[in-house]
Amino acid sequence: MTRKAIVTGHSRGIGAALAALLRAEGWEVLGLSRSAGERVDLADPAALTAWLTGGRLAGFLADAGEVLVINNAGLLGPVGVDGPLDAASTVAAVNVNVTAPILLTDAVIAQRPADATVRVAHISSGAGRRPIVGWGVYCATKGAVDQHAATLAAEGRPGVRIAAVAPGVVDTAMQAQIRGEDGFPLRDDFVAMHAEGQLRSPEEAARLLLDLVTADDYGDEPLTRI
């Protein structure tokens, strides 16, 4: 059985750690990002759609017996409670965090070989499951992928298992961005977590995520965490 994995945002953070781990364990990995691997701007739905229908995805999946999709790429979006939201940042966050995972997941399910199984993980966040003041766009987008995972799980498509997975607080570039956001009411809390060594490493998060996604009962709980 040929094992194929698709990881978005694979050039850094959890995505980079996960791609390295998958390759070490014998998976053939296709990475999607703006800067490495398959260079696709996930913030541009037209560009992503052109790539999904251009033959590269179908070719990668052609001999797959088992497919793993990790929708890891994400943007924080505009942060703060004062003033109007930046429109361009808002649109980009919605496209990367919501539109791209939905389009990629749908394309993989449609283009996989008839006998191939598919497991999908949307990298979500606790922010999608509770309101966080100043994070309206990020909370909304993560809540959206939570519901997408829950809905696909409820549909019970043959050979498809899916969940939205909250990885906890991980030491990534996004966390560094959060700590630099002066307009974010909870900034000091995140600064303290970093200073006290409470952030999970990308490598630890990747190991826990892969163990979860490959478990026999994966998808039984479509909203989960590690």
From TrEMBL:
Span of the signal peptide: none
Superkingdom field: Bacteria
GO aspect biological process, one term? tetrahydrobiopterin biosynthetic process
Q: Which Pfam families match?
A: adh_short
Q: What is its main location?
A: cytoplasm
GO terms for molecular function, please? sepiapterin reductase (NADP+) activity
Which keywords appear in this protein's UniProt record, sorted alphabetically? Answer: Cytoplasm, NADP, Oxidoreductase
Tell me a GO cellular component: cytoplasm
Q: Where in the cell is it found?
A: Cytoplasm
Name by which UniProt lists this protein: SDR family NAD(P)-dependent oxidoreductase
Question: From which organism does this entry originate?
Answer: Tessaracoccus defluvii
